[in-house]
Amino acid sequence: MHWNSFAEFLAMGNHGLYVWGSVVVMAVLMLAEPMLLMRGRKTLVARLKRQLRAEQAETLANRSASRQSRRNTPQE
Amino acid sequence: MTDRVINWFKYASPQTFYPLAGKLIPWFWALAALFGIAGLVIGFLIAPTDAQQGEGYRIIFLHVPASWMSMFLYLVMAFWAGIGLAFNIRLSGMMASALAPTGALFAFLSLWTGALWGKPMWGTWWVWDARLTSELILLFLYIGFIALQAAIDDPRRADKAGAILALVGVVNIPIIYFSVKWWNTLHQGASVSLTKAPSMAAMMLWGMLLCALGCWMYSIAVGLMRVRAIMLERERHTDWVRELLAGKE
């Protein structure tokens, strides 16, 4: 272990602000990126599912509508 | 023997790559944590004080890996973009798009940690010197690539336009790398190079290399996460994505 005390570790030989300023920003951004990706994935999957359901409902509706119209057309 | 050779082309299709990437992501996260923690413990708790720069030099354990990653990710991104342009493979364009934000992140971190290192050592946050300016251009290239792709609705055309920008921008990478040799810059020369023995203590070198490895694993994990999202979005009208979505409740 290089340090004699925790205070010395924090001080970084009077360069604490610069060293910890680098560490904190890098840590925050490198945690934020995967977290945003996970959240983005959740909303994307939900949106795609919604679109898929809407599409399926539409094809079903179209199919029954065309069946209906065929039934309503008077037979010769 | 031939029947045991893995068919790598199989993995070029999003349908087979998607589940494979999903299985690999946790492993790369584990490796990223392992290498990152080991590198930071060595760098911040064990490595000795630098004779010239005191304790402030410890920014090197963040700055150098971030800078290396920003340059290397650009090369990988341009490689995939070029492959996509030449062979028209769907997956390559997606890979290039997936790497750009992470590359931009590392370019920003390189500049940020560099500014915080420059202030105590050079007395200034920023100078318009060759190394710093070319790294700033790298950040702008990443942002330009992302903005250009975002501005074009058709993903195939977006891939092509982005690929040309990415390939032209490759010329900047050797400029960044050799800038400290070609010009008289404020930025110090390379501490580690491929041609000669590193000019630093063994513990410092180990800390830096482990942190760099951690950043590599991080980039792969995040890149795979992003490429999976891009795949779902772009392939949403294909059967395999529909089946996947229908099966997930």
UniProtKB/TrEMBL annotation, chain A:
PANTHER family: HEME EXPORTER PROTEIN D. It is found in: Cell inner membrane. Required for the export of heme to the periplasm for the biogenesis of c-type cytochromes. The lineage of its organism: Bacteria, Pseudomonadati, Pseudomonadota, Betaproteobacteria, Candidatus Accumulibacter. This is Heme exporter protein D. Keywords: Cell inner membrane, Cell membrane, Cytochrome c-type biogenesis, Membrane, Transmembrane, Transmembrane helix, Transport. It is a single-pass membrane protein. It comes from the Bacteria. Its main location: membrane. One of its GO terms (biological process) is cytochrome complex assembly. One of its GO terms (cellular component) is plasma membrane. Residues 57-76 are annotated as: Disordered. The chain crosses the membrane at residues 17-37. InterPro entries: Haem_export_protD_CcmD (IPR007078), Heme_exporter_D (IPR052075). Belongs to the CcmD/CycX/HelD family. NCBIfam families: cytochro_ccmD.
UniProtKB/TrEMBL annotation, chain B:
It is a multi-pass membrane protein. One of its GO terms (molecular function) is heme transmembrane transporter activity. One of its GO terms (cellular component) is plasma membrane. It holds the Pfam family Cytochrom_C_asm. Keywords: Cell inner membrane, Cell membrane, Cytochrome c-type biogenesis, Membrane, Transmembrane, Transmembrane helix, Transport. GO terms for biological process: cytochrome complex assembly. Residues 28-187 form the Cytochrome c assembly protein domain. It is found in: Cell inner membrane; Membrane. The chain crosses the membrane at residues 27-47, 67-87, 94-112, 132-152, 164-183, 203-227. Required for the export of heme to the periplasm for the biogenesis of c-type cytochromes. Belongs to the CcmC/CycZ/HelC family. This is Heme exporter protein C. It comes from Accumulibacter regalis.
